[in-house]
Amino acid sequence: MENNKRKIAIVTGGGSGLGLAIATAFTKHGIETVIVGRDEHKLELAQQQLGVLCHPKVQDLTVLKALPNFVQSITEEFGSIDILVNNAGINQKKEFTDVTDEDFINIINTNLVSVFSLSREVVKQMLVQGSGSIVNISSMAAQYGIPKVISYSASKTAIEGITRAMAVELSPMGIRVNAIAPGFIYSDMTDKALNSDPERKTKVFSRTPMGKMGQPADIGEAALFLAGDSAQYITGVVLPVDGGNSIGF
């Protein structure tokens, strides 16, 4: 972050996983980071790990009517919102014909509608200051078809669409909007899943030119770049961080 101005970021789902990796990258570079989630204990553990630049806030983002006041409270406490990372999301693995309407709507509400609503309220604040950067987290499920994740795929494909639409509308007002599409990123869960399914593991690595899983920090560094001044002429892009998986044969 080349600009010495104090920056304030919101990272949803910042208490664990990719959100925590993004918050780690931000705080290491002096960005005051508000991590948002539903699990107070998880957020507190993250704050202990990240230090004084990390500020945990408990908020259920699917309670849409609460979001305007939530964003207003952050603006009043910190003075501005310079960066928003829409990372929070849920997944469900189910056969297409077993997915209920309620299943589908739940994932769309969490992964898409809450992103729209929170972004709208944050953008209102960013327009006042005439600047801002929004980073949405997409998925390889939006890049190509993956079985048994129909709801998740729909939500993440829509995320890429609203990223481009927001970028075209908001960039003239100084607000850049980009997205990251993570590939196979290491976690205890993904490692265990692949090791228990040798056929799937072979398929994953055979079509990943770099031949390995990424690390959560890879997503953190990508978000730091897109959010920062080094990417000041980049907007509306979906950046795959996947070791080449999306272009692998």
TrEMBL record:
Pfam families given in the database record: adh_short_C2
Listed SUPFAM superfamilies: NAD(P)-binding Rossmann-fold domains
Protein name: NAD(P)-dependent dehydrogenase (Short-subunit alcohol dehydrogenase family)
Family to which the UniProt record says this protein belongs: Belongs to the short-chain dehydrogenases/reductases (SDR) family.
PANTHER family: SHORT-CHAIN DEHYDROGENASES/REDUCTASES FAMILY MEMBER
Alphabetized GO MF terms: oxidoreductase activity, acting on the CH-OH group of donors, NAD or NADP as acceptor
